[in-house]
Write a structure and sequence with these properties.
Blueprint lengths: L14 E3 L3 H4 L4 E5 L11 H13 L4 E5 L4 H13 L3 E6 L10 H8 L3 E5 L1 H5 L4 H11 L5 E2 L7 H13 L6 E6 L3 H9 L5 E6 L6 H13 L6 E3 L13 H14 L8 H14 L7 E5 L7
């Protein structure tokens, strides 16, 4: 008897209507694409991006990259635990080594991930072949399959294309919070003609458009689908929040009974409310917000 695959997902993820007067009084309809319900350990876009990469690893150990609060590191560690696959996480910030682990990194370690801390200058150079080779040697991961930061590569983009396909015929605008851009790149490619994707970056910098376009060119050969970015709702950058954002997230939770993850999902939802109030969407528009994560304990 074959044992069940521990990465089996719930697909397609549910699509739920959120009755919200901030949208309805402007003639808009808000849907929540509950990718946070795909899998209990590989939540949302992490499942869509990681599973194709795990398949590409063909049983080899996996090494990947992230900051001290990286959801991607947590998901990779969980996949390793579920599959019995060795994982190494290269963590930005050498000053963190030797300190007590924060809850996110403690969860990675509990799931069996080896943590290797590097200074920020080295981390920034991780895509350079010589620097990457040196990092892998130092981490003892020279034979490992490398998954980039955030899991965003061609395999991940193809995996996220199914997200767009699931939304065909259901929405006019599909909106998603963006870190490294892989989810947006795949989402836009999977939508039908006439639909468009909107990305809300959670990092400062204004660099993401080029990254998303480069991911699509590597995956599909050209910029694909209709998509755009609104860079205004990062609230200071990655892992940054403000009292205003916290209050917004708590209010949204009260209105809709949805646990709102603060670093990505709250910024997306805040941005959509602001855009609705600005009149950015024509009356009659249906907007699907992709819920890519949930609050971790």
């Amino acid at each position: 008897m074959t044992s069940p695959d521990p990465l089996t997902p719930r697909l397609p993820s549910p699509l739920q209507e959120a009755r919200d007067d901030r949208f309805e009084r402007r003639g808009l309809r808000l849907l929540l694409k509950r990718d946070d319900l795909i899998h209990p350990d590989l939540v949302g876009n992490k499942w869509r991006k990681l599973v194709p990469n795990v398949a590409a690893a063909h049983g080899r150990p996996v090494v990947t990259f992230g900051g001290a609060y990286s959801n991607h590191l947590r998901a990779t560690a969980a996949a390793g635990r579920l599959l019995g696959l060795p994982t190494t996480g290269v963590v930005r910030g050498e000053e963190l080594a030797g300190r007590p682990l924060n809850p996110s990194l403690a969860r990675c370690a509990a799931d069996g991930m080896r943590l290797h801390f590097v200074d920020r200058t080295t981390y920034r150079r991780k895509t350079e072949p010589a620097a990457l080779a040196a990092i892998l040697r130092a981490a003892g991961a020279e034979e490992a399959y490398v998954v980039p930061e955030g899991g965003s590569n061609s395999a991940a983009v193809h995996g996220c294309r199914a997200l767009g396909a699931e939304l065909r015929g259901h929405t006019d605008v599909a909106a998603v919070a963006c870190g490294t851009g892989g989810t947006l790149a795949g989402l836009a490619a999977g939508l039908a003609p006439g639909q468009r994707a909107l990305g809300v970056p959670v990092l400062r910098g204004g660099f993401l458009e080029g990254d998303v376009e480069a991911l699509q060119k590597r995956a599909f050969g050209a910029r694909t689908g209709s998509w755009s970015l609104d860079e205004r709702f990062h609230f200071g950058g990655y892992a940054r929040t403000t009292p205003e954002l916290q209050a917004f997230a708590e209010d949204f939770e009260d209105r809709h009974g949805l646990p709102v993850e603060r670093l990505y999902v709250a910024k997306l939802l805040y941005g959509l409310v602001a855009l609705a109030e600005e009149g950015a969407f024509a009356r009659g528009t249906t907007i699907a917000a992709v819920v890519t994560g949930r609050p971790f304990p």
